[in-house]
Amino acid sequence: MPTVAATAVRLAESSGTGPTLDVPMQVWAITLGAIVLLFTIDLVISGRNPHAVGFKEAAAWSVFYISVAIVFGLVFGAWAGSPYGAEYFAGYIVEKTLSIDNLFVFVIIMTAFVVPAEHRHKLLTLGIALALVLRAIFIAIGATLLAYFSFMFLVFGAILIVTGIKLYQHRDQDPDIEDNALVRATKRRIPVTEDYREGHFFVREDGVRKATPLFIAFVAIASTDILFALDSIPAVYGVTDEPFIVFAANAFALLGLRALFFLVDGLLDRLIYLSSGLAFILVFIGVKLTLHWAHGIWPQVPEISIGLSLAVIVVVLTVTTVASIVAVRRDPSKRAHAGSFTDNVSTDEPRDHPTPS
């Protein structure tokens, strides 16, 4: 990853329109090493003692990962300068919001496949690790495209605006797991057992290699990882065009999701305006990218500053959360939905999420 990132940075600098932050290779290596170490610890802990994660454990890990992200941002800001520090925190908040919506879809998948509580942490960790790998790849691709083609800012902006509008239109729906092409294709090609077989992905039965429902659930999660990676990269490039900041914001936003899942499982249903707020943020960042592209052609076109971007994102999330809490208190029967990019059948009835003890 450092080699790819460094290449992208050199390409951007040579074009005269790309990143200006010079991040030494050793800083890339240290950051990447720390992230890999944290993920490895998470994998070892989840694999060594499979169990249903309780509230106290989930809260402790969530506080730890958020603290790590904040400390990194403060250290990075002190080293690179406060403007870059602000870009990191704006990117982190955007990616954390998108990741929470990603978690919402994970909840739906876990519920649809009735994944036992003791196996959910393993599935989550692998899904989050895959998301990080995919986003690292897309970050490098995005940096190179922006370095060579300035009109990609307009393309990314259009993608986010269309995505935000579609998400708002289908904000009261959930993605249809049975309509997942990758899941259907996997089931057609590989026989599947009826039970989870102690958390294995594959087992051999009567001489035939079969997949377990846990593997099919992982395929569903992997497909959503691809979709969210495609959305998250243009979104974070809307607040910074520095590949290092884009990668760090994504990585630290993803690191705490396994614990956050168990902390908010059941509470996500209460954030009934999350999809609406996220849709607004995507459209806002899409407009910001479009104005940035236009400013490069017509300097008189104003740009949206990083300070204003950070303020808008924080205000939208605050209003979304408070409004959701107030609305649910008035009508406890209301339930949130992850939102969909296609016209699926709306599921207005409450979902019955299994919550770990």
Structural notes for this entry:
By secondary structure, the protein is mainly α. Helices cover about 70% and strands about 0% of the residues. It is globular and about 70 Å long. It has helices at about 1-15, 25-50, 55-80, 80-110, 115-150, 150-170, 180-190, 215-235, 245-255, 255-265, 275-295, 305-330; strands at about 200-205, 210. The model is unreliable at about 1-20 and about 345-355 (pLDDT under 50). The two termini are about 40 Å apart. Strand 1 (about 200-205) and strand 2 form a beta hairpin. It has one domain (about 1-330). It has a two-stranded antiparallel sheet.
What are the main properties of this structure?
357 residues, mainly alpha, disordered N terminus, 2 strands, disordered C terminus, globular, two-stranded antiparallel ribbon
Beta-strand proportion: under 5%
State the order of secondary-structure elements, H for helix, E for strand. HHHHHHHEEHHHHH
The percentage helix is 55-70%
Number of DSSP strand runs: 2
Give the terminus-to-terminus CA distance: 39 Å
Mean pLDDT: 79
Count of alpha/pi helices: 12
Largest sheet: 2 strands, antiparallel
Structural class: mainly alpha
* Coarse morphology: globular
Radius of gyration: 21 Å
Strand order of the largest sheet: 1-2
Q: What low-confidence regions span 5 or more consecutive residues with pLDDT below 50?
A: 1-18, 345-357
Count of discrete domains: 1
